[in-house]
Design brief:
239 residues, mainly beta, Neuraminidase, four-stranded antiparallel sheet, 1 helix, globular, Hetero-Diels-Alderase-like, 6-blade_b-propeller_TolB-like
């Protein structure tokens, strides 16, 4: 299902896709020859470490957000001695989605989600400058959000955020800090009360269109909903 925003024909149309991998189907067609080789860049200690998201900087260093700790780390993968360092620890329980607008401006989702609680009402968007010393700024909070998870840029001033427990896509105007709900659909909702639906977000450019694929953790299907086009997110307030 692909939906185009009415009136967006005169400019680059934008779409959002919902994706859940069909692992069983993929395993039937993957052959030994088609499996790419992999190399371990860095091995974390044996203590539980959940890397939730990453962003690759122009110098090939990798920013990592952790859900097992409210941390952002910087990995230098260059051989022969890859190294990792802690950039910042936030006053929350977990770090989730992150996206880089410029090497000096990173947007992050922070909240109090754990293995036993989604942390509804605790989520916020922060900015991070990874230069030494790293600096951070609280951009805005989302008291109505259930579980903010995926994060991507639709344009330099518009962030799209997936809410995994309420089954919706939220928008944030980083210039005004005003938010809206872009779309809410059954396909994005969790199938059971204690699971999550819509998950990761990424922006792709296909010709004159800018679709945003979304991955859902609980459903095995591919859907699409409209992205941000001519519509101003201030027209539909969040909460």
């Amino acid at each position: 299902m692909l939906v185009t925003i009415p009136g967006s024909e005169k400019r680059a149309a934008q779409h959002i896709y919902v994706y859940i991998p069909q692992i069983k189907q993929v395993s039937k067609v993957v052959t030994q020859e088609s499996v790419p080789s992999t190399t371990v860049i860095y091995q974390f200690p044996k203590s539980p470490t959940w890397i939730e998201n990453l962003a690759i900087l122009p110098n090939n260093q990798i920013l990592l957000s952790l859900t097992t700790a409210p941390e952002v780390r910087l990995l230098d993968p260059n051989p022969p001695n890859p190294s990792i360092k802690l950039l910042h620890t936030f006053p929350y329980l977990s770090a989730l989605g992150l996206v880089s607008l410029t090497p000096n401006l990173i947007y992050l989702i922070l909240g109090n989600s754990t293995s036993t609680s989604f942390g509804a009402g605790t989520f916020a968007i922060w900015t991070l400058n990874p230069n030494t010393p790293a600096t951070t700024t609280l951009l805005t909070t989302f008291p109505s959000a259930g579980l903010l998870n995926g994060l991507t840029l639709l344009c330099p001033s518009i962030l799209a955020l997936s809410d995994s427990t309420t089954g919706c896509i939220r928008l944030l105007n980083t210039y005004t800090n005003q938010s809206s709900i872009l779309s809410r659909a059954p396909e994005m909702a969790p199938p059971t009360p204690f699971s999550i639906g819509i998950n990761g977000l990424r922006t792709l450019v296909l010709g004159n269109r800018t679709p945003v694929p979304l991955r859902s953790s609980a459903r095995r299907s591919l859907h699409a909903c409209p992205g941000w086009g001519r519509r101003n997110p201030r027209e539909e307030r969040d909460g």
